[in-house]
Write a structure and sequence with these properties.
- The chain is of the alpha/beta class and 199 residues long.
- It has a domain of 110 residues: 2-Layer Sandwich (Nucleotidyltransferase, domain 5).
- Helix content is 31%, strand content 24%.
- A 5-stranded mixed sheet has the order 3-2-1-4-5, with helices on both faces.
- Helix 1 crosses helix 2 and helix 3 packs across helix 5.
- The longest helix is centred in the middle third of the chain and has 18 residues.
- The mean pLDDT is 90.
Length: 199
């Protein structure tokens, strides 16, 4: 798998803040910190620490990889916004990697399940980067796959997988990363009538 260059990858799509540095064809630093909230405050300091531990600077990066979901709406927005801002500021590509691809890389399997609220899962085809995950009850997904499912929201090597996939795709990626939302938001817009604006 192509890996020339230095790639910083991160993900905050679930109850974690994960980051990894791929340099010289190997993962030199990888971190996974579990947390229910606080990813927005923790992400940038974590990335600074990963770069420092890897002995590289922001200017040394070839590309950035980011997990785009599915998962927690706020967490996805945090990571994708950070990746797009860093890529713009550094003048390097940012590659969006969906959770299906990353988990498929960790445990090669054409069908991947990602946990969702209320005993549901996102079921997806890990070999098709354009496939949209399907949200369904876990029991239904197990009937489809024919096996029990025990999906992890924060796999140990998730950021590493994102880094490797980024290294393989950064030269052919054109569009900036965008959130992958596979379900509607839990919060709905207010149904109140807005006030009349006076001139």
């Amino acid at each position: 798998m192509p890996s020339d260059g230095t790639f910083l990858a991160f993900d905050t799509s679930a109850a974690h803040c994960a980051a990894a540095l791929l340099s010289g064809g190997r993962i030199t630093v990888a971190r996974l910190e579990t947390m229910q909230r606080g990813q927005a405050e923790r992400l940038m300091p974590l990335l600074h620490e990963v770069l420092a531990d890897g002995g590289v600077d922001w200017a040394d990066l070839t590309a950035i990889g980011v997990g785009v979901g599915p998962g927690n709406f706020t967490g996805i927005r945090i990571a994708v916004s950070a990746a797009r801002g860093l890529a713009l500021g550094l003048g390097i590509p940012a590659v969006g990697v969906n959770g299906c691809q990353a988990r498929g890389w960790l445990a090669p399997n054409s069908v991947v399940a990602i946990p969702a609220p209320r005993d549901q899962v996102y079921l997806c085809n890990a070999t098709d980067s354009c496939a949209v995950p399907r949200l369904m009850p876990r029991a239904e997904a197990e009937a489809i796959t024919g096996r029990p499912l025990d999906p992890q929201s924060s796999p140990e090597r998730l950021a590493e997988a994102i880094a490797w996939i980024t290294a393989a795709n950064w030269q052919t990626t054109i569009a900036p990363p965008a959130p992958l939302y596979a379900r509607a938001a839990d919060a709905a817009p207010s149904s109140d009538v807005p006030p009349v604006l006076l001139d």
